[in-house]
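Input set for joint prediction.
Command: fold jointly, output C-alpha coordinates.
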Amino acid sequence: MAKIKYIEHNGKEHVVEVQNGLTVMEGAVQNDIPGIDADCGGSMSCATCHVYVKEDWYDKLPNKEMGEDDMLDQAFEPNSKSRLSCQIMVSDDLDGLSVYMPEKQV
Amino acid sequence: MIKTDVVIIGAGPTGLFCAHQLGIIGLKCEIVDNLDKIGGQCIELYPDKPIYDIPAVPECTGEELTNNLIEQIKPFNFNFHLNDRVQELSNKNDDWIVKTISGKKFQTPNVVIAGGVGSFEPRKFSTKSAEKFDGTSVLYSIKDKTIFKDKSVAIFGGGDSALDWAIELSNNSKVSLIHRRDEFRGAPASVQKIKELSKKNVINLFTKYSIKDVKGNGSLEEVEIKSEEGKSKIIKADYVLGFFGLIMKLGPIVEWGLNLDKKTIPVNTENFETNKKGIFAIGDICTYPGKLKLILSGFHEGALAARGCFKYARPNEKYRFEFTTASSTIKDRLGVK
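C-alpha coordinates >
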Protein backbone atom coordinates (compact mmCIF):
# COMPACT_ATOMS: atom_id res chain seq x y z
CA MET A 1 0.00 0.00 0.00
CA ALA A 2 1.33 3.45 -0.86
CA LYS A 3 0.02 6.95 -0.39
CA ILE A 4 0.24 8.67 -3.73
CA LYS A 5 -0.29 12.33 -4.40
CA TYR A 6 -1.79 13.24 -7.77
CA ILE A 7 -1.50 16.92 -8.59
CA GLU A 8 -3.74 18.32 -11.27
CA HIS A 9 -2.41 20.92 -13.67
CA ASN A 10 -4.39 23.59 -11.82
CA GLY A 11 -2.63 22.64 -8.59
CA LYS A 12 -5.47 20.67 -7.01
CA GLU A 13 -4.05 17.78 -5.03
CA HIS A 14 -5.52 14.33 -4.46
CA VAL A 15 -3.90 11.98 -1.99
CA VAL A 16 -5.08 8.39 -2.14
CA GLU A 17 -3.93 5.04 -0.85
CA VAL A 18 -3.23 2.68 -3.71
CA GLN A 19 -2.90 -1.06 -3.27
CA ASN A 20 0.32 -2.80 -4.16
CA GLY A 21 0.20 -4.41 -7.58
CA LEU A 22 -2.00 -1.74 -9.12
CA THR A 23 -0.42 0.86 -11.36
CA VAL A 24 -0.31 4.57 -10.64
CA MET A 25 -2.72 4.96 -13.57
CA GLU A 26 -5.21 2.51 -12.03
CA GLY A 27 -4.93 4.33 -8.72
CA ALA A 28 -6.10 7.50 -10.44
CA VAL A 29 -8.85 5.90 -12.52
CA GLN A 30 -10.31 3.87 -9.65
CA ASN A 31 -10.46 6.96 -7.46
CA ASP A 32 -12.00 9.14 -10.19
CA ILE A 33 -9.07 11.52 -10.20
CA PRO A 34 -9.29 13.72 -13.28
CA GLY A 35 -6.36 14.34 -15.60
CA ILE A 36 -5.43 10.78 -16.49
CA ASP A 37 -7.40 9.40 -19.44
CA ALA A 38 -5.79 5.98 -20.02
CA ASP A 39 -7.60 5.46 -23.32
CA CYS A 40 -5.92 2.16 -24.13
CA GLY A 41 -6.53 0.72 -20.68
CA GLY A 42 -2.88 0.24 -19.74
CA SER A 43 -1.49 -1.65 -22.72
CA MET A 44 1.13 1.03 -23.43
CA SER A 45 -0.55 1.78 -26.73
CA CYS A 46 -1.52 5.39 -26.21
CA ALA A 47 0.02 8.22 -24.25
CA THR A 48 -2.96 9.46 -22.32
CA CYS A 49 -1.86 8.51 -18.80
CA HIS A 50 1.19 10.75 -19.03
CA VAL A 51 2.47 12.25 -15.77
CA TYR A 52 5.49 14.23 -14.67
CA VAL A 53 7.20 12.60 -11.70
CA LYS A 54 8.44 14.88 -8.96
CA GLU A 55 12.19 15.41 -9.36
CA ASP A 56 13.40 13.50 -6.28
CA TRP A 57 11.17 10.54 -7.05
CA TYR A 58 12.01 10.14 -10.73
CA ASP A 59 15.31 8.34 -10.18
CA LYS A 60 13.87 6.13 -7.44
CA LEU A 61 11.34 4.55 -9.78
CA PRO A 62 12.15 1.33 -11.62
CA ASN A 63 13.51 2.12 -15.09
CA LYS A 64 11.29 2.48 -18.11
CA GLU A 65 10.57 -0.66 -20.10
CA MET A 66 11.30 -0.76 -23.79
CA GLY A 67 8.72 1.18 -25.71
CA GLU A 68 7.64 3.58 -22.97
CA ASP A 69 9.79 6.41 -24.30
CA ASP A 70 8.49 5.73 -27.80
CA MET A 71 4.96 6.25 -26.54
CA LEU A 72 6.00 9.32 -24.57
CA ASP A 73 7.22 10.88 -27.83
CA GLN A 74 3.54 10.98 -28.70
CA ALA A 75 2.39 12.49 -25.42
CA PHE A 76 1.35 16.08 -24.79
CA GLU A 77 4.48 18.10 -23.90
CA PRO A 78 6.72 15.35 -22.55
CA ASN A 79 9.90 16.25 -20.67
CA SER A 80 12.75 14.42 -18.95
CA LYS A 81 10.56 13.66 -15.91
CA SER A 82 7.75 12.17 -17.96
CA ARG A 83 6.38 8.69 -17.36
CA LEU A 84 3.37 6.73 -18.43
CA SER A 85 1.53 6.13 -15.18
CA CYS A 86 0.27 2.75 -16.42
CA GLN A 87 3.86 1.53 -16.34
CA ILE A 88 4.55 2.46 -12.71
CA MET A 89 3.65 -0.45 -10.46
CA VAL A 90 2.68 0.49 -6.93
CA SER A 91 4.54 -1.06 -4.00
CA ASP A 92 5.34 -0.05 -0.41
CA ASP A 93 8.47 1.63 -1.76
CA LEU A 94 6.36 4.19 -3.56
CA ASP A 95 4.76 5.53 -0.39
CA GLY A 96 4.81 9.31 -0.67
CA LEU A 97 5.18 9.48 -4.47
CA SER A 98 3.94 12.67 -6.12
CA VAL A 99 2.99 12.91 -9.77
CA TYR A 100 1.93 15.98 -11.70
CA MET A 101 -0.63 15.81 -14.47
CA PRO A 102 0.04 17.63 -17.74
CA GLU A 103 -2.29 20.40 -18.89
CA LYS A 104 -4.12 17.83 -20.98
CA GLN A 105 -3.70 14.33 -22.32
CA VAL A 106 -4.95 14.69 -25.89
CA MET B 1 -28.74 7.83 -50.36
CA ILE B 2 -27.65 4.30 -49.52
CA LYS B 3 -30.38 2.22 -47.84
CA THR B 4 -29.18 -0.52 -45.59
CA ASP B 5 -30.14 -2.56 -42.52
CA VAL B 6 -27.23 -1.38 -40.36
CA VAL B 7 -24.47 1.23 -40.49
CA ILE B 8 -21.45 0.19 -38.43
CA ILE B 9 -19.18 2.98 -37.25
CA GLY B 10 -15.68 1.60 -36.81
CA ALA B 11 -13.87 -1.17 -38.67
CA GLY B 12 -11.93 -2.54 -35.72
CA PRO B 13 -12.27 -6.18 -34.61
CA THR B 14 -15.56 -5.53 -32.82
CA GLY B 15 -17.17 -3.81 -35.81
CA LEU B 16 -15.90 -6.51 -38.17
CA PHE B 17 -17.26 -9.37 -36.09
CA CYS B 18 -20.59 -7.60 -35.65
CA ALA B 19 -20.72 -7.37 -39.46
CA HIS B 20 -20.12 -11.11 -39.58
CA GLN B 21 -22.99 -11.76 -37.21
CA LEU B 22 -25.26 -9.49 -39.26
CA GLY B 23 -24.31 -11.44 -42.38
CA ILE B 24 -25.05 -14.72 -40.65
CA ILE B 25 -28.58 -13.62 -39.73
CA GLY B 26 -29.20 -12.26 -43.20
CA LEU B 27 -28.85 -8.51 -42.70
CA LYS B 28 -26.91 -6.04 -44.82
CA CYS B 29 -24.54 -3.46 -43.46
CA GLU B 30 -22.23 -0.64 -44.48
CA ILE B 31 -19.04 0.01 -42.49
CA VAL B 32 -17.54 3.47 -42.06
CA ASP B 33 -14.09 4.18 -40.61
CA ASN B 34 -12.00 7.30 -40.26
CA LEU B 35 -8.74 5.45 -40.94
CA ASP B 36 -7.60 4.61 -44.46
CA LYS B 37 -7.41 0.92 -43.58
CA ILE B 38 -9.46 -1.77 -41.90
CA GLY B 39 -8.57 -2.95 -38.39
CA GLY B 40 -8.90 -0.04 -35.97
CA GLN B 41 -6.57 0.07 -32.98
CA CYS B 42 -5.28 -3.42 -33.86
CA ILE B 43 -3.83 -2.15 -37.09
CA GLU B 44 -3.03 1.43 -36.13
CA LEU B 45 -1.57 0.96 -32.67
CA TYR B 46 -0.20 -2.56 -32.47
CA PRO B 47 -0.13 -4.42 -35.82
CA ASP B 48 2.97 -6.39 -34.75
CA LYS B 49 2.22 -6.88 -31.07
CA PRO B 50 1.13 -10.41 -30.18
CA ILE B 51 -2.28 -10.82 -28.59
CA TYR B 52 -2.72 -13.85 -26.30
CA ASP B 53 -6.35 -13.72 -25.25
CA ILE B 54 -8.42 -14.36 -28.35
CA PRO B 55 -10.39 -17.55 -27.61
CA ALA B 56 -8.93 -20.60 -29.38
CA VAL B 57 -6.11 -18.52 -30.87
CA PRO B 58 -3.11 -18.95 -28.56
CA GLU B 59 -1.20 -16.11 -30.17
CA CYS B 60 -1.72 -13.72 -33.05
CA THR B 61 -0.77 -10.19 -33.99
CA GLY B 62 -3.16 -7.29 -34.49
CA GLU B 63 -2.59 -7.58 -38.20
CA GLU B 64 -3.26 -11.32 -38.34
CA LEU B 65 -6.43 -10.93 -36.31
CA THR B 66 -7.63 -8.22 -38.67
CA ASN B 67 -6.84 -10.24 -41.77
CA ASN B 68 -8.71 -13.24 -40.41
CA LEU B 69 -11.75 -11.15 -39.57
CA ILE B 70 -11.73 -9.63 -43.07
CA GLU B 71 -11.52 -13.15 -44.52
CA GLN B 72 -14.40 -14.27 -42.31
CA ILE B 73 -16.80 -11.61 -43.64
CA LYS B 74 -15.76 -11.89 -47.28
CA PRO B 75 -18.77 -14.02 -48.28
CA PHE B 76 -21.11 -11.16 -47.41
CA ASN B 77 -19.48 -8.55 -49.68
CA PHE B 78 -20.14 -5.66 -47.33
CA ASN B 79 -19.03 -2.19 -48.36
CA PHE B 80 -16.34 -0.32 -46.47
CA HIS B 81 -16.23 3.46 -46.48
CA LEU B 82 -12.71 4.21 -45.31
CA ASN B 83 -11.10 7.60 -44.77
CA ASP B 84 -14.53 8.89 -43.89
CA ARG B 85 -16.18 9.81 -40.65
CA VAL B 86 -19.81 9.81 -39.59
CA GLN B 87 -20.64 13.37 -38.76
CA GLU B 88 -24.37 13.64 -38.25
CA LEU B 89 -27.25 11.45 -37.16
CA SER B 90 -30.84 12.57 -37.64
CA ASN B 91 -34.25 10.94 -37.38
CA LYS B 92 -36.52 10.22 -40.30
CA ASN B 93 -39.69 8.37 -39.30
CA ASP B 94 -38.36 5.13 -37.82
CA ASP B 95 -35.01 5.39 -39.57
CA TRP B 96 -31.72 7.14 -38.97
CA ILE B 97 -30.14 9.32 -41.61
CA VAL B 98 -26.38 9.03 -41.30
CA LYS B 99 -24.20 11.67 -42.95
CA THR B 100 -20.45 11.44 -43.36
CA ILE B 101 -17.81 14.15 -43.74
CA SER B 102 -17.29 13.24 -47.39
CA GLY B 103 -21.00 13.78 -48.04
CA LYS B 104 -22.22 10.18 -48.14
CA LYS B 105 -25.73 9.56 -46.80
CA PHE B 106 -27.24 6.38 -45.46
CA GLN B 107 -30.78 5.56 -44.43
CA THR B 108 -30.97 2.77 -41.87
CA PRO B 109 -33.03 1.59 -38.91
CA ASN B 110 -29.86 0.66 -37.02
CA VAL B 111 -26.53 2.27 -36.22
CA VAL B 112 -23.89 0.26 -34.39
CA ILE B 113 -21.18 2.40 -32.83
CA ALA B 114 -18.03 0.31 -32.60
CA GLY B 115 -15.79 3.32 -32.39
CA GLY B 116 -13.19 2.15 -29.87
CA VAL B 117 -11.95 5.20 -28.04
CA GLY B 118 -12.91 7.49 -30.88
CA SER B 119 -11.48 8.39 -34.22
CA PHE B 120 -7.79 8.74 -34.81
CA GLU B 121 -6.47 12.21 -35.48
CA PRO B 122 -2.92 13.49 -35.67
CA ARG B 123 -1.55 14.98 -32.46
CA LYS B 124 -0.89 18.64 -33.08
CA PHE B 125 1.66 21.12 -31.71
CA SER B 126 0.59 22.53 -28.37
CA THR B 127 2.03 25.93 -29.31
CA LYS B 128 -0.82 28.38 -29.79
CA SER B 129 0.96 30.22 -32.60
CA ALA B 130 1.01 27.03 -34.68
CA GLU B 131 -2.77 27.15 -35.05
CA LYS B 132 -2.58 30.25 -37.24
CA PHE B 133 -0.60 28.33 -39.85
CA ASP B 134 -2.43 25.02 -39.43
CA GLY B 135 -3.17 23.49 -42.82
CA THR B 136 -1.11 25.99 -44.79
CA SER B 137 2.47 25.83 -43.55
CA VAL B 138 2.09 23.81 -40.34
CA LEU B 139 1.16 20.31 -41.48
CA TYR B 140 0.62 16.91 -39.89
CA SER B 141 0.49 14.84 -43.06
CA ILE B 142 1.78 15.25 -46.57
CA LYS B 143 -0.47 15.08 -49.58
CA ASP B 144 1.77 16.71 -52.19
CA LYS B 145 5.49 16.64 -51.55
CA THR B 146 6.31 18.93 -54.50
CA ILE B 147 5.29 22.01 -52.46
CA PHE B 148 8.46 21.60 -50.39
CA LYS B 149 10.86 21.84 -53.35
CA ASP B 150 13.69 24.30 -52.60
CA LYS B 151 12.04 25.30 -49.32
CA SER B 152 13.18 25.09 -45.71
CA VAL B 153 11.30 22.42 -43.82
CA ALA B 154 11.42 21.81 -40.05
CA ILE B 155 10.28 18.30 -39.16
CA PHE B 156 9.39 17.36 -35.57
CA GLY B 157 9.18 13.79 -34.32
CA GLY B 158 11.20 10.63 -33.80
CA GLY B 159 9.17 7.89 -35.42
CA ASP B 160 9.13 6.43 -38.90
CA SER B 161 6.97 9.16 -40.43
CA ALA B 162 9.34 11.89 -39.26
CA LEU B 163 12.47 10.01 -40.29
CA ASP B 164 11.16 8.82 -43.66
CA TRP B 165 9.99 12.29 -44.65
CA ALA B 166 13.21 13.91 -43.42
CA ILE B 167 15.19 11.54 -45.64
CA GLU B 168 12.86 11.90 -48.61
CA LEU B 169 12.54 15.69 -48.48
CA SER B 170 16.27 16.22 -47.95
CA ASN B 171 16.69 15.49 -51.68
CA ASN B 172 15.07 18.74 -52.70
CA SER B 173 14.60 20.81 -49.55
CA LYS B 174 16.62 22.19 -46.65
CA VAL B 175 15.52 19.87 -43.85
CA SER B 176 15.87 20.31 -40.10
CA LEU B 177 14.84 17.37 -37.91
CA ILE B 178 13.97 18.12 -34.30
CA HIS B 179 13.30 15.46 -31.66
CA ARG B 180 12.84 15.66 -27.90
CA ARG B 181 15.45 13.02 -27.06
CA ASP B 182 18.56 11.32 -28.46
CA GLU B 183 16.91 8.07 -29.35
CA PHE B 184 14.55 7.53 -32.25
CA ARG B 185 11.81 4.98 -32.44
CA GLY B 186 11.97 4.62 -36.23
CA ALA B 187 13.44 1.68 -38.13
CA PRO B 188 17.18 1.23 -37.36
CA ALA B 189 18.10 1.65 -41.05
CA SER B 190 16.33 5.02 -41.19
CA VAL B 191 17.99 6.16 -37.96
CA GLN B 192 21.36 5.20 -39.46
CA LYS B 193 20.56 7.12 -42.64
CA ILE B 194 19.53 10.22 -40.68
CA LYS B 195 22.80 10.16 -38.76
CA GLU B 196 24.77 9.93 -42.03
CA LEU B 197 22.85 12.78 -43.60
CA SER B 198 23.37 14.85 -40.48
CA LYS B 199 27.11 14.19 -40.57
CA LYS B 200 27.22 15.34 -44.20
CA ASN B 201 25.25 18.44 -43.20
CA VAL B 202 22.43 17.50 -45.56
CA ILE B 203 20.05 17.47 -42.61
CA ASN B 204 20.27 19.72 -39.56
CA LEU B 205 19.63 17.47 -36.61
CA PHE B 206 18.50 18.90 -33.27
CA THR B 207 17.92 16.39 -30.49
CA LYS B 208 16.66 17.17 -27.00
CA TYR B 209 14.76 20.09 -28.42
CA SER B 210 11.07 20.74 -28.77
CA ILE B 211 8.99 23.45 -30.38
CA LYS B 212 8.58 26.79 -28.62
CA ASP B 213 7.07 29.12 -31.15
CA VAL B 214 6.41 29.61 -34.85
CA LYS B 215 6.73 33.06 -36.32
CA GLY B 216 5.96 34.85 -39.52
CA ASN B 217 4.16 37.80 -40.96
CA GLY B 218 1.48 36.36 -43.17
CA SER B 219 3.54 33.38 -44.19
CA LEU B 220 5.66 31.25 -41.89
CA GLU B 221 9.27 32.42 -41.60
CA GLU B 222 10.92 30.75 -38.65
CA VAL B 223 10.43 28.31 -35.84
CA GLU B 224 11.92 28.67 -32.38
CA ILE B 225 12.97 25.54 -30.55
CA LYS B 226 13.91 25.09 -26.92
CA SER B 227 15.92 22.60 -24.93
CA GLU B 228 14.79 21.44 -21.50
CA GLU B 229 17.42 23.62 -19.88
CA GLY B 230 15.78 26.59 -21.55
CA LYS B 231 18.27 27.15 -24.36
CA SER B 232 16.53 28.34 -27.49
CA LYS B 233 17.41 28.39 -31.17
CA ILE B 234 15.80 29.91 -34.24
CA ILE B 235 15.48 27.88 -37.41
CA LYS B 236 14.42 29.34 -40.73
CA ALA B 237 11.40 27.43 -41.99
CA ASP B 238 8.84 27.81 -44.75
CA TYR B 239 7.07 24.71 -43.52
CA VAL B 240 6.79 22.98 -40.16
CA LEU B 241 5.78 19.33 -40.08
CA GLY B 242 4.74 17.50 -36.91
CA PHE B 243 4.69 13.70 -36.67
CA PHE B 244 3.71 12.81 -33.11
CA GLY B 245 1.47 9.89 -33.86
CA LEU B 246 -2.26 9.76 -33.54
CA ILE B 247 -4.57 10.59 -30.70
CA MET B 248 -8.11 9.36 -30.29
CA LYS B 249 -11.04 11.70 -30.05
CA LEU B 250 -14.67 10.86 -29.52
CA GLY B 251 -15.50 13.53 -32.09
CA PRO B 252 -19.06 14.15 -33.26
CA ILE B 253 -20.43 11.15 -31.29
CA VAL B 254 -20.84 13.45 -28.28
CA GLU B 255 -23.39 15.51 -30.19
CA TRP B 256 -25.85 12.73 -30.96
CA GLY B 257 -27.82 12.97 -27.73
CA LEU B 258 -26.51 9.71 -26.33
CA ASN B 259 -25.97 9.23 -22.62
CA LEU B 260 -22.26 9.42 -21.93
CA ASP B 261 -20.16 8.27 -19.01
CA LYS B 262 -16.76 9.95 -19.38
CA LYS B 263 -15.71 8.82 -22.84
CA THR B 264 -17.98 5.78 -22.99
CA ILE B 265 -21.61 5.09 -23.86
CA PRO B 266 -23.79 3.22 -21.36
CA VAL B 267 -25.75 0.32 -22.89
CA ASN B 268 -28.02 -2.45 -21.74
CA THR B 269 -26.45 -5.88 -21.71
CA GLU B 270 -29.34 -7.60 -23.45
CA ASN B 271 -28.69 -6.16 -26.90
CA PHE B 272 -26.24 -3.29 -26.31
CA GLU B 273 -28.70 -0.64 -27.32
CA THR B 274 -28.04 2.88 -26.05
CA ASN B 275 -30.64 5.33 -24.74
CA LYS B 276 -31.63 5.95 -28.37
CA LYS B 277 -33.76 3.38 -30.16
CA GLY B 278 -31.81 1.68 -32.94
CA ILE B 279 -28.43 2.99 -31.85
CA PHE B 280 -26.17 0.35 -30.38
CA ALA B 281 -22.69 0.65 -28.91
CA ILE B 282 -20.21 -2.21 -28.67
CA GLY B 283 -16.53 -2.75 -27.91
CA ASP B 284 -14.31 -0.33 -26.02
CA ILE B 285 -16.74 2.55 -26.46
CA CYS B 286 -19.59 0.98 -24.51
CA THR B 287 -19.88 0.60 -20.78
CA TYR B 288 -22.02 -1.47 -18.41
CA PRO B 289 -21.48 -3.04 -14.99
CA GLY B 290 -18.57 -5.45 -15.27
CA LYS B 291 -17.43 -4.24 -18.69
CA LEU B 292 -14.03 -5.58 -19.76
CA LYS B 293 -12.17 -3.84 -22.55
CA LEU B 294 -11.23 -7.09 -24.24
CA ILE B 295 -11.61 -7.98 -27.90
CA LEU B 296 -13.50 -11.12 -26.91
CA SER B 297 -16.06 -9.02 -25.03
CA GLY B 298 -16.48 -6.90 -28.15
CA PHE B 299 -17.25 -10.06 -30.14
CA HIS B 300 -19.96 -11.07 -27.70
CA GLU B 301 -21.42 -7.58 -27.67
CA GLY B 302 -21.44 -7.51 -31.48
CA ALA B 303 -23.27 -10.84 -31.69
CA LEU B 304 -26.03 -9.64 -29.39
CA ALA B 305 -26.27 -6.18 -30.97
CA ALA B 306 -26.73 -7.87 -34.36
CA ARG B 307 -29.82 -9.67 -33.01
CA GLY B 308 -31.02 -6.36 -31.62
CA CYS B 309 -30.72 -4.85 -35.11
CA PHE B 310 -32.80 -7.66 -36.58
CA LYS B 311 -35.87 -6.51 -34.68
CA TYR B 312 -35.86 -3.09 -36.36
CA ALA B 313 -34.60 -4.19 -39.78
CA ARG B 314 -37.22 -6.98 -40.12
CA PRO B 315 -40.09 -5.82 -37.91
CA ASN B 316 -42.49 -8.34 -39.43
CA GLU B 317 -40.24 -11.36 -39.12
CA LYS B 318 -39.46 -13.43 -36.10
CA TYR B 319 -35.77 -13.97 -35.46
CA ARG B 320 -34.89 -17.66 -35.34
CA PHE B 321 -31.72 -18.75 -33.64
CA GLU B 322 -29.64 -21.11 -35.80
CA PHE B 323 -26.23 -22.77 -35.63
CA THR B 324 -23.72 -22.34 -38.46
CA THR B 325 -23.00 -26.07 -38.26
CA ALA B 326 -26.58 -27.05 -38.99
CA SER B 327 -28.42 -24.31 -40.85
CA SER B 328 -28.62 -24.61 -44.62
CA THR B 329 -29.76 -20.98 -44.84
CA ILE B 330 -26.60 -19.82 -43.12
CA LYS B 331 -24.48 -22.08 -45.30
CA ASP B 332 -26.08 -20.48 -48.35
CA ARG B 333 -25.23 -17.05 -47.02
CA LEU B 334 -21.64 -18.15 -46.46
CA GLY B 335 -21.50 -19.74 -49.90
CA VAL B 336 -20.50 -23.13 -48.53
CA LYS B 337 -22.08 -26.50 -49.19
